[in-house]
User: Fold these one by one.
Assistant:
Number 1:
Amino acid sequence: MYRKMVEIRKFEEHVWDVYTRGWMPGLAHLYIGEEAVAVGVCSALRDDDYITSTHRGHGHCLAKGARLEPMMAEIMGKEAGYCRGKGGSMHIADMSVGNLGANGIVGGSFGIATGAALSAKTRGTDQVAVCFFGDGAANQGLLMETANMAAIWNLPVIYLCENNQYGEHTPYQAVTGVDKIVDRAQGFGMEGVRVDGSDVLVVHEAVKRAVERARKGGGPTFVEALTYRFRGHHVGDAAPYRTKEELDWWMTNRDPIELLAREMRRRRVATNAQLNEIQEQTEREVVEAVEFARNAPYPAPEQAFEDLYA
Ligand SMILES: Cc1ncc(C[n+]2csc(CCOP(=O)(O)OP(=O)(O)O)c2C)c(N)n1
Ligand SMILES: [Mg+2]
């Protein structure tokens, strides 16, 4: 878990670097600060379980098993990328590990995850689908329709709300009728649990229980993970709408990587030297992925019309 969270952090720091150097088209929504959610969730899943992701999706993809090189290549629009350079930062999918795709449409993956869960149930497998979405997406109408279906059909789906406190520049309290988003679970007729999204072990335990229940036919669960993004909404946003005190508090007290490091030292399962070695090794791997992506070719123009369904 520690290694995976560090990998996501380093990957995102390099995406920032790649963006500021002008090596990638478009922009990216960084996941720095939220690593414990993706890693806590995906470490409770099997390879053949499904996830759907969001515009802030790099962490979900890596946690579900994506490799660094095709990830970075996709972000730079190269043919070696997961979607042959046609998806970019916001649309990375990897069916081989059950990642049904990130989605630039906020709330657009409710239907995809719920459909995957319906498919698993219809085929009689014990696969589970996790739908990642934000506090902003929690106000999209499709959630009402799909969560209701999941409840009446007892579908093996987990609605995983990453409450990072803001939708773009708006604090969630300003646009949400409930203080705890998880309170809506009761109205859908499903189990709901709110967890500390900065603590990877807490996230893991809660999702593990929800997954076990779903596998046994126990139906859907709504999980709200409280978290915080350390960077702006996207790489071009300096986030002037929040205070330095607020940001400092989260970075000092709730950094998920630091929290796990502290816990591992306390339980004497890792030394500082071992943790530093993981940091250094991961840094080297991400630098190699950037090099790989930089040197990889762009797709040929005639490929623009391949793989299109319209
Ligand atoms: C349907 C739709 N509406 C609006 C947008 C523009 N938009 C992109 S991200 C975003 C905020 C999403 O907030 P949240 O769900 O909390 O996710 P976060 O960015 O905090 O991870 C909005 C409004 C969009 N991409 N899709
Ligand atoms: Mg948000």
Number 2:
Amino acid sequence: MDRERAAVLDSSHHPPEAFTRVADSKDRTPATIVDVQGLSKIYPKKKASGEGGIWSKLGLRRSGPVEQFVAVDAIRFSIQAGEIFGLLGPNGAGKTTTIRMLCTLLEPTSGKATVNGYDIQRQPNLVRQNLGAVLTGERSIYWKLTGRENLQYFAALYHIPPALAKPRINELLERLDLAARADEYVERYSTGMKQRIAIAKALLANPPVLLLDEPTTGLDPQSARNLRELILEIKREGRTILLTTHYMEEADQLCDRIGIVDTGKIIALDTPARLKASIQQLDVIQAEVENVSPALVDELKRLQGAERLLARDNNSDGSCTISIHTLDSRALLPTVIDLIGTHAGRVRHLQVAQPTLEDVFITLTGKQLRD
Ligand SMILES: Nc1ncnc2c1ncn2[C@@H]1O[C@H](COP(=O)(O)OP(=O)(O)OP(=O)(O)O)[C@@H](O)[C@H]1O
Ligand SMILES: [Mg+2]
């Protein structure tokens, strides 16, 4: 999104009177704070004609037929006030597209959604006043300003009176652990700090709903852990959070409920515990094996009682993690160990584990969440 557009969108915020509590909870806090009903986004997919594809793209030759690509396919979910709701799915599943439609940055092709009771298409300004968003791939913070100057700039844009803005900015800088570096240029911030200043900006107008697109992607493990802790704190203030992630551990740890998304559709929606319980009868044999040959993987796949098999290389040490879904690990385990030995594989670690959210995803889609 270009800066002007961002500014126009930002300037439509009107701050609530007080900042000490979550906004807009006076007389009407609906139990359902985000309601998505059959929302779809269809992109025209221009197909270049058989030969000379680049000439068409450059506008020098007529392009081929326009195909349609369904990025988000009639999804529906509702989020209760105070919940952390996660959209979990692989690359290209439609998570960002969904978030962008809810922020009113992208027009839905069809369907309907409300945020705090306001319709995203008919009342976009009111929707924007009720949510703060941190999107991936969009630089909403000015790197040539300091952290504090950014917040001052956006506070002015949101028409927050200076007397309220100053303590609010100090409070946010403190809370987001940026106070000591508040007067440095944002371009000198680490990735984690840039993410935190973007969250501070999103919280500036005290919105009841926060949308976070892949909040921890690109952060080191320690910063990611701190940010997850912060997200839980923001929830404890009474805010509702919609986040997207392709980290199942993150979804498991943070979310009250999760919608698993694949190719634009929500294919399962429940609490992490219930999603895992839905495949609880399944055991997962996990073996870390050195010297894995394609023939070994093939034979393991064909074993009677092996429902599904996944093999993932651990590039750092040359070993391979093999996960086998089975209904009866006790019966299968000796055969698995024998086969690995026959193919000159060396077992470094072996365990029978409970299914994770990734196993739920694999069971539902037949593919892995991460490549
Ligand atoms: N402007 C666009 N025009 C055409 N197709 C688009 C456009 N924006 C996104 N898409 C396509 O829509 C699909 C969904 O994209 P989206 O960015 O919502 O996925 P995502 O779940 O956020 O993935 P990721 O985990 O990689 O961020 C993708 O296949 C993407 O290529
Ligand atoms: Mg995305």
Number 3:
Amino acid sequence: MKAIVITRGGAPEALQIREIEPPPLLPGHARVTLRAAGLNHRDLWQRIGYPGPEPMILGSDGAGTVEAVGADDDRAWVGQEVVINPSLYWGDREDAPGPNYQVLGNPTFGTYAESVTVPVENVAPKPAHLDFVQAAAFPLAGLTAWRALFGQGALQPGQTVLLPGIGSGVAGFALAFAKIAGARAIVTSSSQDKLEKAKAQGADFAADYTDDRWEQQVRDYAAPAGIDLVIDHSGEKTLPAGVRLVRPGGRVVFLGVTTGERLELGLRETYFKQVHLVGTMMGSPREFLALCRFIELHRYTPQVNHVYPMEEVAAAHALMEAGGQYGKIVLTI
Ligand SMILES: NC(=O)c1ccc[n+]([C@@H]2O[C@H](COP(=O)([O-])OP(=O)(O)OC[C@H]3O[C@@H](n4cnc5c(N)ncnc54)[C@H](OP(=O)(O)O)[C@@H]3O)[C@@H](O)[C@H]2O)c1
């Protein structure tokens, strides 16, 4: 199969198209002919840090058609249009993944290829109203936002969620899902343009976090009920403000360390307010199915900003690296 491979870490040009033998199709697995592959920031970090020299196929998000399965029991999947859940080997528990947990796209061959082989539990019927490009845009970031909001975050209709750094893919999905679920959403960004786009998408209040007054503006807007949930994806520079802003007994769900991973946190304030500080990581197969049903029921369409043919993967990576997108970048295969 034709695939975009990487054999050493480096600049976007380190990604090259090659013929690669697909992995063997074992029982319990499905091989999916891919039509589109979505990009995530994870792909950039994998590319930059890849030690080589073995060829690796990056990519966690993909959509296509099941071409073959490894066991007769699963043959009903053959020919079905599917979307791939990149959370591999999650295990049976809902509260946390098991010891074999992996994210698709290193060490397992990923979706920047003509086909991908995944466990059958990692394919789900493609929401019928989405085309392959739209379907390949939501799995990783959408699943992360879903679990953060409704699983770890326990968000209820009528409650208020704060989403700092709305330019992030995960935050963008969280905004869309929170609004569909009937919650009030407050966003922050360093970009006026992104603040305007978020308001057009339904954000109830938008603040510029480069303005020293942003925290007070958010507090004033949320009063008197306050903020029930904060979803923090950037870590060191944002999480302490989330703890200060959340209401007593509220939740701060955190999932990333874009601005660093060392924290100075007022512990007395945190326990006195009885804040729930909860980590989260993508989601389970059950949550992925629930997300797909939610997307189909509400006819939600992910925002795709840039589509590149797979041959132009270096340009797609360069765009993401420059932070030039609002919405997802997708490769057509
Ligand atoms: N745990 C998981 O399962 C999981 C899954 C997916 C991603 N992640 C992590 O989540 C993080 C976000 O990933 P992503 O791909 O969604 O987005 P991303 O593109 O990495 O997010 C970048 C955004 O972070 C915001 N940001 C940067 N500094 C900030 C600050 N000081 N205050 C507030 N916002 C700030 C900026 O928002 P503005 O442009 O609006 O200013 C920027 O656009 C990454 O660290 C990633 O590793 C974790």
Number 4:
Amino acid sequence: MRKQIALFNHKGGVGKTTTTFNLGWMLANKGKKVIIVDCDPQCNLTGMVLGFKDAEGFASMYASDSVTNIRDGLAPAFESRPALIQPVHCTPINGQPNMHLLPGHMGVAEYEVTLGIAQELSNSLVTLQNLPGALHYLFSKTAEKYNADFILVDMSPSLGPINQNLLMTSDYFIVPMFPDYFSAMATESLASILPKWAAWAKQGKKLSLLQEAIYPFPDKQPKFLGTIIQNYRVREGVPSAAFQKWIDEIKRGVEKRLIPVLRENDMLLPDELYKKVSEIAQRQAMLFSDSAISCPLFKVSDFNSLIALSQKHKAPVFDLSDAQLEQVGVVLEITKKSMQKFRALYSDGADRIITLTENAESY
Ligand SMILES: Nc1ncnc2c1ncn2[C@@H]1O[C@H](COP(=O)(O)OP(=O)(O)O)[C@@H](O)[C@H]1O
Ligand SMILES: [Mg+2]
């Protein structure tokens, strides 16, 4: 079964885009067919993957006659064209035949207001009934075309109608975090917004007008896969004290505030399943003392020099060749060791995601 996973946190700079790319690549390394979707009007993922330095790259891609990006894909629904939504002609990813990019478009921001009105689910809905199901329909048709197992949705840092739609029409979601005050605060606002979104989706799923639409509103109940804590500094192999404080704070927030809300709104997988993957993690010597649900999918320290090289070569931080690392001798060996550590982390994270999503229905 195809799985759509949203990477969601309304706070920016927490690693949504970086995780989408690296995790997608790792899932693809494991033989899964993956589509990464850039839903952020800032198009960071698209810029990174395609190596666009300025607007020119985007302009030539958008000038194509075929449907090459999310805005063109959605246009039939949002611009009331008579034609049906067609699958997007995705961009292949150099070096990773199992992964494709569904490129972003700044113009998607223009659809936000209309979608917001459609999602008010008021009486004026007849003219807007096709919009709430359009994003999901577009991704499904595109995933079908590429025979994808996973659709990873990179989202913008906002609590707007597009993100509300993307999250509530996904099968699963991951919340990337950065260990600081703002991510700790973000747990609070997620705990207060998610019940509202869940109530809205529940109402949407019951509305015959949305079910009878050309692009029906999908019957989804998104489940939490976990958090990913990114980009902290390490000292002697463990997070430095300042970061550890925020990591603990985030875990507390997730456990005390977020998990109860997710449980009330049926957004959690069965407890045994979280326990199962945390046992896998423990076997792989990543010991977590915390409870199974709040333990992050993985924690990843600062990539240091690897992040710039990853962006320069449009390759994941864990799969750079010796030539791409641009180093020799002892320095090269040290960097390769650190790269192997990240490879093991992402590999473990991908295994846990595969286990969670493949067993979700059998529990
Ligand atoms: N583990 C990491 N180590 C170093 N830099 C990182 C790491 N994760 C993300 N970054 C950098 O942090 C910035 C924000 O990450 P990004 O993935 O763009 O976040 P978001 O999509 O949530 O805004 C980017 O410049 C990215 O290159
Ligand atoms: Mg981003």
